[in-house]
């Protein structure tokens, strides 16, 4: 489900209606349900399980940090949890890069490695929620957060809040907890401000990003052509355009 589509517009409208018709103390359940639905619409149950497992590991680690007395124990817990999170991120996002470069080196050196590219698909938003979870663990370790979240379902909502799953930002727990869990009151001004930001974001995607992607695609596709016709400034220009898209 693309965020620039009629389906997403219907989805977000229904979510808002259910959110404000629900009692304030249960509104976070509406957001959690919407987030799970959005994830499944763009991914699979198996990849949702990966996200849930990473979040629960972070949740347990944060509780362990809060209960530990020795500073060394707290550092050990946060270190092990971060390594586990980064290992999953590396497995899904960087294994293809490693395998591809190993095969290139093998062809150059004549070594018969022949590693196969992994066929799995990375979970939706894994880079974003991995860094969000790492930031949460560090905030707990540094006592930036006075008390870690005790409800695992609320932790799942914080890490997988659907508006940030596609393009971020990297949310901090102490900035988000009140808005996510306390249930804000309906205000026309907030609705209007939100609509303005959505329209501006859609404009940047459809007008700016889509148009610039034509240049970046042409530049990167040129690398496969005989003799590499683009060199120097062409690659620099392509890299700059890629960042803007």
Summarize the structure.
This protein has 245 residues and is an all-alpha fold. The protein has helices spanning 6-21, 27-42, 45-67, 71-93, 95-109, 126-141, 152-160, 173-181, 188-221, 233-244.
How would you characterize this protein structure?
The protein contains ten helices and no strands. The mean pLDDT is 81. The protein starts with 5 loop residues before the first helix and ends with a helix. It has 245 residues and is an all-alpha fold.
List keywords for this structure.
single chain, mainly alpha, 245 residues
Summarize the main sheet: none
First CA to last CA: what distance? 19 Å
Share in β-strands: under 5%
The number of distinct β-strands equals 0
The amount of helix comes to over 70%
How many distinct helices?
10
Oligomeric category: single chain
- Order of SSEs, N→C? HHHHHHHHHH
- The coarse overall form would be globular
Radius of gyration: 22 Å
Average of the residue pLDDT scores = 81
Helix-and-strand structural type: mainly alpha
Unreliable runs: none
Question: What is this structure's SSE topology?
Answer:
Layout: H1 6-21, H2 27-42, H3 45-67, H4 71-93, H5 95-109, H6 126-141, H7 152-160, H8 173-181, H9 188-221, H10 233-244
Helix pairs in contact: 1-2, 2-7, 3-4, 3-6, 3-7, 4-6, 9-10
